[in-house]
Design brief:
The complex is a heterodimer.
Chain A lengths: L3 E4 L2 E4 L5 E7 L6 E7 L3 E10 L2 E4 L6 E3 L9 E3 L8 E8 L6 E3 L3 E5 L1
Chain B lengths: L3 E4 L2 E5 L4 E7 L3 E9 L5 E6 L3 E5 L2 E6 L4 E6 L8 E9 L5 E3 L3 E6 L1
Parallel strand pairs in B: 2-11
Antiparallel strand pairs in B: 1-3, 3-8, 4-5, 4-9, 6-7, 7-8, 9-10, 9-11
Classes of the chains: A mainly beta, B mainly beta.
Chain lengths: 112, 109
C-alpha cells in the first residue's frame, strides 16, 4: 500500500542547531507540503512543492527551507533552531486536481 | 487567501447522540476534505468531498460548493469519535490546503 512516512517521530534539539525532518511518500504525488501545528493556530503551511525542483514558501516559512530532488522526498530543514519552532510538524502529499491529500504521522520537535 | 471557519469550536456529547459540524469558506474551493485528528495526534482522512454527499458508516458529509460550506454528520457517536475534526480546502489556482481551526469533540460514555 502507498504511504507517507515521517522521521524521526520525536526529536529534541538545542537552540542554534540545524535540524532536518524527513518526509517520504510512495503515492507518486507531485504535490508535497509541510505544516506545523500549534495550540491556538491549527495547521499552518510552511513550504510546499508541486514537483521536482519546485519549492514555494507558505505562510510561516521564516527559518525553514526545503528541497525537492525527487518525487518521493521533501525534507524540511530548520537552519538554526529556535524555541519558537517547538511544534508538531506534519508532511502531506497529494491534493492535486481531484486528488485527496494524505498526511504523515507527524514529528514532535522540541527546541531547548 | 481563503478563510475557513468551523463551528462549533467545542462539542461534548453523550455516547449515542448525533451531531453536525459545519465548515464555512470565504471563497470557492476546489478540493475539500474532512479529517479527524485522534487523541494520538494522527490526521485521519474522513472524506474528500468538493461537492455533493458521501457516507461512510456512521459518518456522512455534504458540501454545497455554490454556498461555500460543508457539513459533517456523526450519528450514534462513540467514545472513539473523540478528537478534533478539521476541514480544509484549496483555493482556485492553487493546491495549498488551508485549514480551519477545528471542532474539538468529546464523547462521554
Amino acid at each position: 500500500d502507498a504511504e507517507i512516512t515521517q522521521s524521526p517521530r520525536h526529536k529534541i534539539t538545542e537552540t542554534g542547531r540545524q535540524v532536518t525532518l524527513a518526509c517520504h511518500q510512495t503515492w507518486n504525488h507531485n504535490n508535497m507540503f509541510w505544516y506545523r501545528q500549534d495550540l491556538g493556530h491549527g495547521l499552518r503551511l510552511i513550504h510546499y512543492s508541486y514537483g521536482v525542483h519546485d519549492t514555494n514558501k507558505g505562510e510561516v516559512s521564516d527559518g525553514y527551507s526545503v528541497s525537492r530532488s525527487n518525487t518521493e522526498d521533501l525534507p524540511l530543514t530548520l537552519e538554526s533552531a529556535a524555541s519558537s519552532q517547538t511544534s508538531v510538524y506534519f508532511c502531506a502529499s497529494g491534493g492535486g486536481l481531484n486528488t485527496e491529500a494524505f498526511f504523515g504521522q507527524g514529528t514532535r520537535l522540541t527546541v531547548v | 487567501g481563503i478563510q475557513v471557519e468551523q463551528s462549533p469550536p467545542d462539542l461534548i456529547l453523550q455516547e449515542g447522540a448525533n451531531s453536525t459540524l459545519r465548515c464555512n469558506f470565504s471563497d470557492s474551493v476546489n478540493n475539500l476534505q474532512w479529517f479527524h485528528q485522534n487523541p494520538w495526534g494522527q490526521l485521519i482522512n474522513l472524506f474528500y468531498i468538493p461537492s455533493g454527499t458521501k457516507q461512510n458508516g456512521r459518518l456522512s458529509a455534504t458540501t454545497v460548493a455554490t454556498e461555500r460550506y460543508s457539513l459533517l454528520y456523526i450519528s450514534s457517536s462513540q467514545t472513539t469519535d473523540s478528537g478534533v475534526y478539521f476541514c480544509a480546502g484549496t483555493n482556485s489556482g492553487t493546491y495549498k490546503y488551508i485549514f480551519g481551526t477545528g471542532t474539538r469533540l468529546k464523547v462521554l460514555a
